[in-house]
Amino acid sequence: MNTTPIVNIARKILLPVILFSLILNASTSVAQNLLPYRNEVISHKISSVIITNSVMQEEKGKKGMTEKSKVKYVDTVKYDMYGTLTEKRITAYDTDSKREYAGDWTYTYDSLGNRLLETRVEPEHNSMDYYKYVYDSNRIYKQIWVNWVNMKHIFDRIYAVKYDGYGRLKTEIIEEGNEKIDSVLSFQFDTLNHLHDILCTSDKDLKDTINIVTYFYNADGSTAKTITTTKSGKNTAEFTYDPTTKKILKKSSEEETDTYTYDKNGLLTEFDIVPKDRKGMKHKYTLSYIYR
Predict the structure, then answer these.
(1) CA 171 to CA 227: how far, in whole Å?
(2) Side-chain half-sphere CA neighbours of 148 within 13 A
């Protein structure tokens, strides 16, 4: 089991510590979703992926868009020959002050591919944390977060996965060590054994539904689109897929429109986010790959 524990950019007058922290959180949550699947890493012999993000803006009297980033960040991840993530480095550039900030992650695993240790080092504000993973016989694992500098125990987080009688994923529960439920994912299948709905709730009894992801399929069984609906029912996001089930378009009722571009090998090369509330602007992510 290979697990991976998800932006406001401060003005340059704020402390670099705050700036860097915000950038890392934003970059991690978006960039992590852009990384290739493990089988793609293995089949294409990918050793590293470099993700660069910048803000593009239209300007009067000029064709196209120009880069207007106050902060630009690069997320570089490295894999071993088995497609397992071993290192990650996020480098943020403040294009106003020309300063550079960086954070480094390393990962270790057991012989079965279970993550045992994750370390995070952010020299900019003298931070060093580690996450230890402990498993039981039922494959339930606990993530223990400790600050390595002062050895302060920050919190425990427990991930529990349950399966139905057919071996299909039934529920995935995430809770903090004090038994406070963070979220529960419940998986529902149709009569053709296709995943039909994913319900995200905030309690074990599945009463308080936060959002629902519904799947739609082509005649050949491949995914055609998914629709995510929030609890209020007002905000929806629709994802469209190509015949190879690669995501190509997202349309959101309140947030933005996202587009995905792939190369001839089917690897993602560009991801664009166009916010609804900011006309003439987009966040552009470009991906490049280093092969063995």
Answers:
(1) 20
(2) 14
pLDDT tens digits along 59-91: 776 777 777 777 778 889 999 989 999 999 988
Question: How does pLDDT run across 192-202, given as a tens digit for each residue?
Answer: 899 898 888 86
pLDDT, one tens digit per residue, over 119-168 is 988 776 667 888 888 887 766 678 888 776 666 777 788 888 888 888 88
Is the residue at 282 inside a domain?
no
- The secondary structure of the chain, three-state, reads CCCCCCCCCCCCCCCHHHHHHHHHHHHHHHHHHHCCCHHHHHHCCEEEEEEEEEEEEECCCCCCEEECCCEEEEEEEEECCCCCEEEEEEEEEECCCCEEEEEEEEEEECCCCCEEEEEEEEHHHCEEEEEEEEECCCCCEEEEEEECCCCCEEEEEEEEEEECCCCCEEEEEEEECCCCEEEEEEEEECCCCCEEEEEEECCCCCCCEEEEEEEEECCCCCEEEEEEEECCCCCEEEEEECCCCCEEEEEECCCEEEEEEECCCCCEEEEEEEECCCCCEEEEEEEEEEEC
Any domain includes 273: no
CA-based nearest residue to 156, from 174, 177, 138: 177
- 231, part of any domain: yes
Take residue 112 and report the two structure tokens written for it.
């079965």
Are residues 145 and 139 in contact, defined by beta-carbon separation less than 8 angstroms?
no
Number of domains making up the chain? 1
Residue 265 neighbours by CB distance under 10 Å? 10
Domain assignment of residue 208, given as a range: 164-254
Task: Compute the distance between CA of residue 210 and CA of residue 229 in angstroms, rounded to an integer.
Answer: 9
Q: Which residues pair with 76 in a beta bridge?
A: 50, 89
CB-CB neighbours of 57 under 10 Å:
14
Give domain status of residue 178, yes or no. Answer: yes
